[in-house]
Amino acid sequence: MRSPYPSPAAATDSWRLSFDGIDPRRLRERMVAEQIEARGIHDPAVLAAMAAVPRHLFVEDGLRAQAYEDTPLPVGHGQTISQPFVVALMTQALEVSPGMRVLEIGTGSGYQAAVLAAMGCTVFTVERLRELHVEARDLLARIGVKGVHFMRGDGTLGVPAAAPFERILVTAGGPVVPPPLMEQLEEDGLLVIPVGERHGSQRLARLRRHAGEFLAEDLGGVAFVDLIGDHGWQAPAPRR
Ligand code: SAH
User: Fold this and answer.
1) What domain range includes position 106?
2) What pTM value is reported for the model?
3) 45-71 pLDDT, tens per residue?
4) Residues contacting residue 240 through CB under 8 Å, at least 6 positions apart
């Protein structure tokens, strides 16, 4: 697959030092082999995309050296980038193919959106926190990722102006599947979302819309940050 990053050298050079001279591409190949393939993710397009996207650029500066480890990491503002395996699991569960229109709720660092863009999708991604929205948009522009539309707002309302979507991915955990997202899913579309308790204990659900019904599957236990909005949890009271 052709790399979606036109000048990887420019993007990676300044980080070389934090990897003790190891090329980040080698760290990514190892991440894909040991954390993702070894645990049963087999979709070649998912593996190729995760081997291509420079994950170390999506974490906080001081955490670059840990970017390819088997763990979620802070991206600022109390939010996290998911563990690589969880990104791979959700991406595989979405069953995307090139050209699909995908709605992502919870832009965060922009990493998941970059992975979907690397797979040839047109991505609409919504973030409620202005700083993360701006930082992710700027980062993807800087490293030359195309095909991602950034929006700021309450993603539990979806994006009616761009609906319907063939795929919808929610990367924060709410109490229910937001009805507007179900409405904005195309016939035979898939919606992947963590649903459950507040503060990080959910089941990953996959819904398929077919013939006026939604068929649900349970893909296992996950721990995401809170989905906050009209069809999510209430925003925490501001700290005094
Ligand atoms: N997909 C991200 C990780 C998401 S972390 C990545 O690849 O880095 C979850 C994100 O969802 C956080 O940034 C949080 O601010 C955001 N979020 C929570 N509730 C939201 C809502 N209702 N609409 C949009 N974004 C929301």
Assistant:
1) 74-222
2) 0.93
3) 999 999 999 999 999 888 998 999 999
4) none
